[in-house]
Amino acid sequence: MGLTIKSTIALANGVQMPLLGLGTYKTTDPDDIRRSVLAALAVGYRSIDTASMYGNEDGIAAALGESGLPREQVFLTTKLWNDDQGYDTVLAALHHSLERLGTDYVDLYLVHWPVLQYMEATWMAMEEILERGEARAIGVCNHLRHHLEQLLDHAAIVPMVNQIEYHPWLQQPDLLQYCGRLGIAVEAWGPVMRGRLAEEPVLAQIGARYGKTAAQVALRWALQNGVAVIPKSVHEERVRENAAVFDFELSISEMTQVDTLDRGTRLGRHPDETWG
């Protein structure tokens, strides 16, 4: 497929989003953030994913500064937390995130979860943020089809990204097809199943043919499906391992084998059960 660590997906407005990024959920220790971000950038990652709720935006800023990379070479994503939804609070929340990140723009700003009662006002503010240039692209997380349909009832701009839980146990093909029809790029959180890959030995069996781990097979499967991935790790060796997925390619039959693992099983919260 010709994928490399530099491969990107073109968002609806032409912005290029890397297919591989570093996730930083629950990584709050400054030393952990520093090590993981610097290790990722050293091996070739150019996308870092954070959120105001993660409490690590300032640590990421410090690591990016230490890396010496120009700001424009790193695709930086952060997210709007639920308590900050609503027009004025969205604008204020992004400004606080920008201050912590030490930058005057993010490459991607995402609504973290659907909060139905604030959806219209929140998205109006997101569109203004895009117009101001404070984000190069805007999108959502954890939005199912009915959430997207509600948002699109009043949106002038279609979300450019939908970051969702996506892995061999939760493939959501109907949602992926719907996003594809609308030109919404899909990005996977939890792509290595929060450490439960060992429960599916077929992944290790496939990996053994290539000298790869079950996690690398799961990541490669997602990438070959056109889904961006943001695996999270604070361990330098694992950060490097998660990037070593561009020197092999799963066959059609191997892709089908992974497809059959879909259980519809969530390892995180269900969007309808979480907020509003």
List descriptors.
276 residues, eight-stranded parallel sheet, globular
What is the tally of beta strands?
Answer: 10
How large a portion of the residues is in β-strands, by DSSP E?
A: 5-15%
> What is the global morphology?
globular
**Mean pLDDT, as a whole number?**
96
Distance between the termini: 41 Å
Largest sheet at a glance?
8 strands, parallel
The secondary-structure element order is EEEHEHEHEHEHEHEHHEHHH
- What is the gyration radius calculated from CA atoms? 18 Å
Give the strand order, joined by hyphens, for the main sheet. 3-4-5-6-7-8-9-10
Helical residue percent band: 40-55%
Structural class: alpha/beta
Low-confidence stretches: none
Number of helices: 11
Write the layout of secondary structure elements.
Blueprint (H helix, E strand, L loop, with lengths): L7 E3 L5 E3 L3 E2 L6 H14 L3 E3 L7 H11 L7 E6 L6 H15 L6 E4 L7 H14 L5 E4 L3 H8 L8 E5 L7 H10 L2 E5 L11 H10 L3 H11 L3 E2 L6 H8 L8 H8 L11 H4 L2
Parallel strand pairs: 3-4, 4-5, 5-6, 6-7, 7-8, 8-9, 9-10
Antiparallel strand pairs: 1-2
